[in-house]
Sequence to fold (485 residues):
Amino acid sequence: MGEVIVITSGKGGVGKTTTTANVGTGLAMLGKKVVLIDTDIGLRNLDVVMGLENRIVYNLVDVVENNCRITQALIKDKRYPNLYLLPSAQTKDKTAVSPEQMKKLADELREEFDYILMDCPAGIEQGFKNAIAGADRALVVTTPEVSAVRDADRIIGLLEANEIHHTHLIVNRLRVDMVKSKNMMSSDDVVEILAVDLIGVVPDDENIVISTNNGEPLVGSECLAGQAYMNICNRLLGQEVPFLELDANKGFFQKIASIFKK
Amino acid sequence: MSSNVMIKGTKSGIILVLDKEADWDTLKQEIGEKFRTSSDFLGDAEKAISFQGRDLTNEQQQEVIDIIHENCKLEILCVLEEDPKKEEAFAKTLEAKLMEKENNTGFFFKGNLRSGQVLDVETSIIILGDVNAGAKVVSKGNVIILGSLKGNVFAGSAGNVDAFVVALDMNPVQIRIADTIARSPDEAPKKKKERETKIAFWEDGNIYIEPLDKDVIGDIRLS
Fold:
């Protein structure tokens, strides 16, 4: 029986879609059968980030409206054969799908897949309700900014109200230098405010921008963000993985500079 | 009473079934008798008539209609052809004519189509503007884009494989012609290409994209 995980944040632009793409790909790399569902109807992105846009023929709304079978709409990833994407529709809006239909869809996919990842749209309206409808657990993504943390807090409250108690936190785009200079909240600060278990900290990394633009998730690569995402995947599978030392990977000149700073 | 003549009713008219072998003069008599006896039943409606069982010349058809008018109050308005072959041929020509009309007429659209916008037309279409990624053009005929194509196009949506797509700058996500779908290559081109007018067309189950030169234009079929 597969597990349905919703990736949500409340605030837009904090990295839900990037997280979905990387965590999904990471789980597939670890041998799990995974399907990613883009529930952001009308503003679809996940297909672009995965580099699968040119393969779309049918979408989520077609499946729900019975215009096609689920298997016809599922797009097989070009890198990992056990990874699939169910793209969203671009020409409809959130009302094209109801939470009941999403729950039914998730339950059907449960039979077939180990993990079903729901990429949730920003906001707390219909799209959010659709995305969480069938979920067993949630990954709440936030950045270390007061506005994002405030929205994450609201989202955690709404998840609890909807009987989703298995919630983990991902702190995204952390900048260690700014944390050190006390200009940014640390991941500990965020956890203290939100009081949910931390499952990963992803540093702000320019490789993310490059990978997103190329449609190639960077999970599993050497860069810090790639390692951080792979650690999240391993923790999802129940392993104990120590948190990354985010400032360990400094360049040669930065290392010398830090010696002089001392 | 012989069964050389039979009258059948349909929604819009009556079908007169005539014996193939019978002598024409006796047949005429029987027709008259048949309509006289069923005059009350048939009433005084206006009907169309068609003939079955025997091929009649135009004069013979007229004779029969005159006999009917003499013997009952029915008003025969027209004669319908009941030949299924002829009917099929007629339907085909009509459809072909309609297709031709769709392919050879088109309309203009001015503006950029942005992500999520769909332009769905029955005819061919000329777009004065760009078609962005995430936007879609659907046409039963041809699609000509005087701008950049960066989104999806579906030409010949009713199944016409002669439909084609032209764009001043051809970088589609997907092009579909009739039932064939072509998608863009996964590897983005390293260098920025020169802007070049290209045509996408269907041939033997594949979609080809080529520069729009004189030879290619010569091969275009406006079916």
Strands of chain A lie at 3-8, 34-38, 75-76, 83-86, 115-119, 137-142, 166-174, 197-203. The first strand of chain A starts at residue 3 and ends at 8. The interface with chain B takes residues 42-44, 48, 51, 53-57, 78, 90-91, 214-215 of chain A (CB under 8 Å).
